[in-house]
């Protein structure tokens, strides 16, 4: 018997069907964030990273243009089992002449969309409301100057148009996620006025309906330069999303450090149809470390699985680390969330629930502990092999080869 068959039988003893776990896992796309590949630089020219975002490290070989970024993404995708999505920021358009954010068009993203088509990827999109002179004061959609607000409103509108265009070409709905950095370093005198302006601006952004765009809004607790006040807080966007029928984006790094987004998923989906996750890993703060397989991640995956939320939760990655091989960083994070989903899929949910409903919390706890030593790694290896990608311990040598053959030449 193969290691997989032995594992499959162990799970069967607990009433868990490993085959069906594998089948389900293969249907879950992960939206791969383009910005891990070039330290959130984009292709507009010499932009400096703003919005309080910070990337540390100077590992050699970062993508310098769209062709290199696509090449790197392709390499990462070759090492990640399953079929996935691209998550692109507006600053990654391909412009033959300088094009400001309020003038972007679908044609600037055509090569990305074509690439998604030929690589069988979905396409998600994001307005870039940072790293721009009009965001220099730290305010965008809630800026006190109506002209600057209008600039960002137009940018976000155009992004939704591009999202619709991409969705039609790829025949797959496009999540367009709006995150803005707006906030204050120090205690504001008036917290209300910015929030009132933000509601108005967002309503203008979303004025035109787009059939295939899934509009999403992302909250944040604090940022560098917005330590005392963030206009788009969790309560703000939760209320906005509920009242307007939008998706809410829960970023794992955007809450107090002991707060987990896992616990928020069922609460949000009690009132919302769908949500987006930005799977990230904060270390002491919203540091956007590479996602790894840990309890936080497992708890997120478990919520998706036990509630059968696969159609209602969109899973995207959001981190940026320039201190390690950037392609390897994509692979580690994407595989980690897939592994977490697999582990959750291999749990005997019904048994755990029945212990719970009979008040037998000791059996629930004992079973939860027992599950930790079950051979899910053999099931994961099987998933990798069925999807023709290397197993754990196998893919790193491909990263090394890519590093010497491709990245070293940059
Ligand atoms: C910032 C948000 C946002 C960005 C990306 C680049 O705190 O998490 O999602 O990371 O849009
Ligand atoms: Zn995010």
| Element-by-element helix/strand order | HHEHEHEHEEHEEHEHEEEHEHHHHH
Strand content: 5-15%
Shape descriptor reads globular
DSSP, total strands: 12
Low-confidence stretches: none
CATH superfamily: Divalent-metal-dependent TIM barrel enzymes
CATH class: Alpha Beta
How helical, in percent, are the residues?
Answer: 40-55%
Largest sheet: 8 strands, parallel
Which structural class do you get from the secondary structure elements? alpha/beta
Strand order of the largest sheet: 3-2-1-12-9-8-6-4
Overall tally of domains: 1
pLDDT averaged over residues:
98
Bound molecules: L-rhamnitol, zinc ion
C-alpha termini separation? 47 Å
Q: Assign the CATH topology.
A: TIM Barrel
Radius of gyration: 21 Å
CATH architecture: Alpha-Beta Barrel
Helical segment count: 14
Please explain how this structure is put together.
By secondary structure, the protein is an alpha/beta fold. It has one domain: Divalent-metal-dependent TIM barrel enzymes (TIM Barrel, Alpha-Beta Barrel), CATH 3.20.20.150. 42% of the residues lie in helices and 13% in strands. The strands form 3 sheets. The protein has an 8-stranded parallel beta sheet, with helices on one face. A two-stranded antiparallel sheet has the order 5-7. α4 links the parallel β2 and β3. It is globular, with a radius of gyration of 21 Å. Bound molecules: L-rhamnitol and zinc ion.
């Amino acid at each position: 018997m193969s290691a997989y068959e032995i594992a499959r039988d162990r799970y069967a003893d607990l009433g868990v069907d490993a085959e069906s776990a594998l089948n389900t896992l293969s249907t879950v796309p992960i939206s791969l964030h383009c910005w891990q590949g070039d330290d959130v630089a984009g292709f507009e020219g010499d932009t400096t990273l703003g919005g309080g975002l910070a990337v540390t490290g100077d590992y050699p070989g970062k993508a310098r243009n769209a062709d290199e970024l696509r090449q790197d993404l392709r390499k990462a995708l070759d090492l990640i089992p399953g079929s996935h999505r691209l998550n692109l920021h507006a600053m990654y358009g391909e412009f033959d002449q300088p094009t400001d954010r309020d003038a972007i068009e679908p044609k600037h993203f055509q090569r990305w969309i074509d690439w998604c088509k030929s690589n069988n990827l979905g396409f998600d999109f994001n307005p870039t409301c940072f790293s721009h002179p009009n965001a220099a004061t730290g305010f965008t959609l809630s800026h006190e100057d109506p002209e600057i607000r209008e600039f960002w409103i137009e940018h976000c509108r155009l992004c939704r148009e591009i999202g619709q265009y991409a969705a039609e070409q790829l025949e797959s709905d496009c999540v367009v996620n709006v995150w803005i950095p707006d906030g204050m370093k120090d205690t504001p005198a008036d917290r209300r006025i910015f929030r009132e302006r933000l509601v108005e601006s967002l309503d203008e952004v979303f004025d035109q309906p787009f059939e295939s765009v899934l509009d999403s809004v992302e909250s944040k607790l604090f940022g560098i330069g917005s330590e005392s006040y963030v206009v788009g807080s969790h309560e703000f966007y939760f209320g906005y999303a509920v009242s307007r029928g939008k998706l809410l984006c829960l970023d794992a790094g955007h809450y107090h450090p002991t707060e987990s987004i896992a616990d928020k998923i069922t609460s949000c989906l009690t009132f919302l149809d769908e949500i987006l996750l930005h799977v990230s890993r904060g270390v002491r703060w919203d540091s956007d470390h590479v996602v790894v397989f840990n309890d936080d991640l497992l708890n997120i995956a478990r919520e998706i699985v036990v509630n059968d939320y696969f159609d209602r939760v969109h899973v995207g990655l959001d981190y940026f680390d320039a201190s390690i091989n950037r392609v390897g960083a994509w692979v580690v994070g994407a595989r980690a969330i897939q592994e977490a989903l697999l582990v959750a899929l291999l749990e005997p949910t019904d048994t755990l629930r029945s212990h719970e409903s009979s008040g037998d919390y000791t059996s629930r706890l004992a079973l939860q502990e027992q599950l930790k030593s079950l051979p899910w790694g053999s099931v994961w290896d099987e998933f990798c092999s069925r999807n023709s990608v290397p197993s754990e311990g196998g893919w790193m040598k491909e990263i090394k080869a890519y590093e010497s053959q491709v990245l070293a030449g940059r």
